[in-house]
Structures are given as C-alpha cells and as structure tokens.
C-alpha cells in the first residue's frame, strides 16, 4: 500500500481485445510488468452498437443503474436517483476523454468532466502520443516529471474505439517512458489498461471461455465445487454472468501492484498466467478508487 493516495489513468480500448497482435509491443510490455486479469460482463440485451458502448462503460464505473434509468430500461423517478462518481466515492474528481457523443452524454450524467480525445491527441504534429500523454498526466498533477501537491483530477478515463489500437499502443509507450521506475511519477500513478471484445457472437463462447475445466461438468461431484466469486454479489448469485469474452485488464504502479507471470496481453496468456483471475466489471472502479483512498478494499 502506498503512503499517499494514487492518481489513476485508465485507458479503455473499446472492442480492441481482438486486434492486439505482436506488433503492439508497448501493450505487451505493460502486461509484462503489471498485475493482469479478467473483468466479467453480464449477458447483453438486444441493443445497438451505441447502446453497447455506453452499457459496457457503465459497468466499468458500476453505474449500470444510471444507464438503465437514462436508457428507459428502468422507470424514471427523478434525476437525483442517478448518483455521481463524486457522491459515491468520497468526492472523487474524474474526467472522461472520448470522441463518442453518446458516451459524452452519459459521462456528464454521472458527473464526469468530458474532454475531446481528438483535440488532445492532435496537439503536436511531431509526436501526438507524447503530447497527449503529457496532457493526461498534467490533468492528474504530474508536470515536468514532478508530482504536484494538487491536481485537477484524481482519475482520468480515456475511451479509445476499435479503429485506434495503434493509438492506444503509442499512448501506453509514452506514459511508460514518462513514468519510468525511479521517477516521481511512477509510485503515484496507477495505470490501468482495459480491453473489451465489443459485440460478441455465439461462436465466441467456445473461443474465449472463462469457465474453469470443472465448471459445467455433469458429475457426482459437481455440487461440491463452490461458485466462483465473480458469479456472486454479496450472498446472491449473479444469474446473468457472461462466461466468455471478458474484458482484459492490466494494472501497474511501481511498488504497489504485484507482477504476475503474464508477458503478453492476450486471452490465453491471462487465462493461464494472470494473478487476478476474474472479477465482475462493476467492481473495477472500486479497485481503482481504493488506490486513490476513495473506497474500501474490494475482495481479498
């Protein structure tokens, strides 16, 4: 545990998990020093692509109730039913960087300040990834390699869509270069990379399953196997858990996160070698907020 609260930078590659390959060296370099695992999602209702984008992001921020109210899936009472992140996490100051207009509207609904990714990324012709990385760090109070006492935000979420896997790879490389071990930034920056599979098909169930081998086996001992924790919420069973195509997550902070055996950010590597295994996607924000001293620890 750090002796001061961290500041969190979260890169969310929406639908990018399918497209990461060996050429994306910075993504794999991060995974090789990070603590990795899966974030499980619930089964999706019939929906448009825009609805999927917002719904899955809402799970990352444990804001599915807000999404249900905003989308009309749950009857509206009054707007105060939708709690902001600041209300739920001890005054958490957070920003969302995205070019998605639908995600912009939802981000504002749950109290996020919203910035345009395209404007941030195009500030420099010579190295847009370095310029954007510097801006993200500045928002978190890291300037000139120093950690300032105050910052505009405790957490910055950067949403990058499916056409930009090269962008997220470059941004990771720039951030890792600026937050090298031994710097003032590295012990205070909690860096997360989350990659989702986007829209899924029935065929994906056999290609990217998260069930352990004994689950689903019809045997005399099946009833003796305890349910995995990601299928539970408190003492109640989560009946809608999608047991395939989870989000992939890698988290790194010098001297804080534990390194596992993962050396590439891929489904198979995480399933075989990750240290965190599977947690529900809606617990992700609680894990991050804990590092910011804004929430109690989730899990062990």
From TrEMBL:
<protein>
    <recommendedName>
        <fullName>AT5G11810-like protein</fullName>
    </recommendedName>
</protein>
